[in-house]
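Checklist before submission:
- one chain only
- standard amino acids only
- sequence pasted in full

Submission:
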Amino acid sequence: MATTSQPLRGKIACKKIFWAVLPHACFILSLVIYAFLGALMFSHIEGTQKVTLSEEYRTFLQNLTFLARKLSDNVTENEKMFKKDIRELFSTADPVWFINPEERWSFFGSLFFCCTVFTTVGYGNTYPVTRIGKYLCMLYALFGIPLMFLVLTDMGDILATVLSKCYNEFRKLQSKILDSKLCSGSTCSKRNELKSRAQSKIVINEPLTIMEVLRSQSGMKRRLVKYRNVELFEMLIAREKKNTQPARNKSMERWSSCPELAREKAVSRVIENFDKIGKELEKLDVPIVLMVLVIFVYISCAAAILPNWERNMDFQEAFYFCFITLTTIGFGDTKLEHPKFFLFFSLYIMIGMEIVFIAFKLGQDRLIVLYKKVISFCAEKNMPSKKIYPK
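Returned file contents:
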């Protein structure tokens, strides 16, 4: 009997894990599919655009040719003026003029652009040029940004649960270490004796049956019959309620053996998981200093790895780039030479944005508490003092 029940228990445990992981997997999978569809769309629209020479580009080439001829006449006298003029000329140039659309809007480049759109980073070095691409970018961001925030909130719940459990376990371990240091032999024995005495005084009273209650009531026969019937009726109702509760549990166990009802029960659990999104993040209560330390360590690890494939970055530049990315500021002053390698870094961005999001949420809660204290303090100061009039 035990051998047949073990595989059944394993299947039930696997089903429970499947239905518990399903909502989180659906969110992540939908975001990945949304990013791939956007990459195919933008690579087709922006990558196949025809390069047309605008009037501004022709004027730029004419001014550049004029400066080159002017420099060739007298190199020594016009060298400083040429540097100044060439800087001013290139400041008016559009970067799109010097980029091949097929190279910029490849599949990986378009996928990188989609990630910068729905994460609200927006570096600015890649942007749609065509009118259709701009309209589709607005529509893509309109649905992609809420989906990204939903994934952040859902994954933030998991991360908040892990952080809170780790912090609570650390506090318990810290309290045990402090107790072991402060507790000597005599004091510990006294504490244990007090605990054992307190536990020995605890008496668990089991519920009595109706007959035992009636036997214990010695004055029951002396009372009037009318009041005695009322008390008996109330006892019977209370006893019936206690007896019906286990029967419901047994009936639910019989219903759970039916696969249709079991499936409906699992679906209801999945719906409850959707409704609980963001609840664990609201319950999180860890020190804000701990979250800042976690962010610093997290960014430092990436800043040490990123210069391995981005040769134009050192540790400080990579740290600055990761901070600007995870906080979704995205100035665009630091450009990436290999966006293909950075796409493998997308998981790091997702987790890092969740950590920063949790830190911002904790900081917001602390600010609200501070504002409440300030407002209550100001209200107490402005309250009129009570005047005591003589009798």
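Reviewer check: Confidence is low (pLDDT under 50) at residues 246-256.
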